């Protein structure tokens, strides 16, 4: 049994619980990630976005990739993606850095009309979506602080449930979801939606926690996550329950 007893909660109740957890943590979310993971989440996110291989040249001859970041929260994945999409963005000088998530050697500007191709569908290059307006609001504010107006015109923020996305079929080349899928009530439904909005040949990329394959390390991790993380949540974010949820949701998600 668990603190929240997730196995027993009806799906509408889980949705409400997840909403209140993220509403409660929205303004502490970024600092809490650094504290709980000792900064490691930045490395996981860098690695994940590198694996998308967006820039330079997503795929030879393809138009500028349209990217959807679902459960995008405060924008950590989306901002790294935006840095990689920079060469495809009209009016955006390559190499103008934003700091976080930036990598060297990838500032090549495509001169082949990729920006014009980007107009072929009614979504901008980068869409950040999240079910929680508070998380999204923090994300939008962070984006406004770090990106130029040219880059911001290539981005949109949309409040949406991963289980019922408000986008047309075949709209995106890439769908990313980082530390989001385990929070979704009906995972199959979210996966069907991902498939629907992706173009044929598009890519689904999920970043999640898993199990530690080495038993003593798993034990140490369990101890850390059940004792230290809720305590950090209590002291810093003043919400022990939200971080207890986090730990339990990780434990219950498939490896
Ligand atoms: N992707 C961001 C990151 O890596 O920092 C945020 C991850 S955060 C742990 C999980 C996010 O999932 C929250 O912002 C929450 O609001 C969102 N979320 C939960 N259920 C959702 C759903 N059904 N549809 C879309 N987003 C959801």
Automatic annotation (TrEMBL):
Pathway(s) annotated for this protein in UniProt: Cofactor biosynthesis; ubiquinone biosynthesis
* Stretch list, region Disordered: 89-116
GO MF terms here are:
2-methoxy-6-polyprenyl-1,4-benzoquinol methyltransferase activity
Residues making up the signal peptide according to the UniProt record: none
Name the residues that bind S-adenosyl-L-methionine: 74, 130, 161-162
What topology does the record note for this protein and the membrane? Peripheral membrane protein
Q: Where is the composition biased (Basic and acidic residues)?
A: 99-111
Taxonomically, the superkingdom here is Eukaryota
Give the GO biological process terms.
methylation
Reaction(s) catalysed by this chain, per the record, are: a 2-methoxy-6-(all-trans-polyprenyl)benzene-1,4-diol + S-adenosyl-L-methionine = a 5-methoxy-2-methyl-3-(all-trans-polyprenyl)benzene-1,4-diol + S-adenosyl-L-homocysteine + H(+)
Q: Which residues form a coiled coil?
A: none
Which keywords are on file for this protein?
Answer: Membrane, Methyltransferase, Mitochondrion, Mitochondrion inner membrane, S-adenosyl-L-methionine, Transferase, Ubiquinone biosynthesis
Enzyme class, spelled out: transferase
Q: Name one GO cellular component term.
A: extrinsic component of mitochondrial inner membrane
Record-listed E.C. numbers: 2.1.1.201
Cell compartments where the protein resides: Mitochondrion inner membrane
- Its primary localisation, in coarse terms, equals mitochondrion
Q: How does it assemble?
A: Component of a multi-subunit COQ enzyme complex.
Q: Belongs to which family? A: Belongs to the class I-like SAM-binding methyltransferase superfamily. MenG/UbiE family.
Protein role: Methyltransferase required for the conversion of 2-polyprenyl-6-methoxy-1,4-benzoquinol (DDMQH2) to 2-polyprenyl-3-methyl-6-methoxy-1,4-benzoquinol (DMQH2).
Identification of the protein by name: 2-methoxy-6-polyprenyl-1,4-benzoquinol methylase, mitochondrial
Q: Which organism is it from?
A: Ectocarpus siliculosus
Q: What is the lineage of its organism?
A: Eukaryota, Sar, Stramenopiles, Ochrophyta, PX clade
- Please indicate which part of the intact protein appears here, giving the first and last residue numbers and the full length: 49 to 303 of 303
